Amino acid sequence: MSHHRSVDARLGLALLVLGLLLSCAGNAEAAVAPGGIGAGGSVALADVTCVRQCVAVHKVRPGSTVRVRGLDLEEVREVVFRGSKGPIQVEPVQRTERAATAVVPEGAVAGRPYVIDQSGHQSAPSPHKLFILPGAPSPSSTPASGSAYPIAGKHELWEGFGGAREHGGADIGAACGTPLVAALTGTVESVKYEPRAGNYLVIDAGGVDADLIYMHMSAPSPLKVGTPVAVGTQVGTVGDTGNAQGCHLHFEYWIGEAWLGGEAVDPVPYLTQWEGSAG
Ligand SMILES: [Zn+2]
After folding, report:
1. How many other C-beta atoms are found inside a 10 Å radius of the C-beta of residue 238?
2. C-alpha 6 – ligand 1 centre gap (Å)
3. pTM of the model as a whole
4. Domain range 40-138, its CATH number among 3.40.50.2000, 3.20.20.70, 3.40.50.300, 2.60.40.10
5. In the chain, pLDDT over 90 holds for what percent of residues?
6. Do residues 101 and 65 lie in contact, with contact meaning Cβ atoms separated by under 8 Å?
7. Ligand 1 centroid vs 112 CA: distance in angstroms?
8. What spacing in Å lies between the alpha carbon of 142 and ligand 1's midpoint?
9. How far is the CA of 147 from the centre of ligand 1 (A)?
């Protein structure tokens, strides 16, 4: 149940941007063209990044799931990919104010996706190119060495990623003291305490450019920074330290480096996949 510093910082930035947009609209209402900044129903894209079945952050295959980030994205009607025979429109599988999620369609080719809102306005293309490799989706982004569910014991998903409070990870309830294990092979990157996160651990996952974060652990991880961990290695136990109501793991999955230019993505698809592979 934690909002940590980076979430608050991002939220602060978003509010600042929103404030600027609102003040622009207020001062120059008459000068704003339909579809421009401040016009009702217009949407603005910040980026399109891969969140599931990825090759890399901006490299995907048909079947990969991408997240469109920006403002007013609850208004998105279609995500438009470049196709070899013309634009391909896809309805998002999920939309929030600042994110819309869509599956890359067959036939899509490299380009800068854009979106169309409910009133038919088209956004500017994404500033970054999305590279689309041909062929079947990769079965998983997990390395061949396997994976494990991060909680070795009875557990229950309490709350997923995002939502109204911009939750940065997934909350998974489990009895205090239940072992926490490395979900992927990697290296212990940090073992720290923070008032909201409580005792937390960051694992730099090998080979997938991802960081895994475990929060609210009952005690500091016994592992030292730099220790290599294999899949299933115990890294701590479930607790309720920091800002936690009840014993649970707040788990985050970052593509790239956590808090250093990386991006927290929805960990639930990974958790579901790891659960399937466990046992
Ligand atoms: Zn949480």
Report:
1. 26
2. 13
3. 0.53
4. 2.60.40.10
5. 52
6. yes
7. 33
8. 23
9. 22
